[in-house]
Amino acid sequence: MRNLSVILLTGLLIVLPSCKYFKGGGLFGKKARIMAIMKAQEDSMRVANSLQKVKDHLMEIENAKLDSARKADEERLAFESKHKFNIIVGSFITPEYAKGLCEGYRKQGYDPKILKKERSRFELVSIEAHDSFRKAFSRLKQFQDTVQIESWMYINK
Description:
Helices cover about 65% and strands about 15% of the residues. It has helices at about 1-15, 20-25, 25-80, 95-105, 135-145; strands at about 85-90, 115, 125-130, 150-155.
């Protein structure tokens, strides 16, 4: 009898684990699978939320950049509309020297003008004047490379 119970018990242990109910974990296995699926869904929602937060933050940064660029353009246009940008080739206290330099550049085909510097005794010889800073700056670079290396820009207010 004792041997029979051992054989039966051994047979049950061999047969029962092969049963689908026990392989799937039974009732507790089903709950575990459902819980694992729910946890995976929560994790994916948490990741999606954090990705959305990052996306929103990047959008805020991009909007701030665009606003900053727009403000800079507005300020530049306001600045340029109020100022004239002059390429200066000489600055003199003695008016005769300024007139002499003007005549020299006039002979070269330029149309120089003499500007009185505000609250100063200096007279500036301007070879060109532009309304746009960009154009004046590019012309200044050309002028420095080809005609007068010591020329500079004066913003007439």
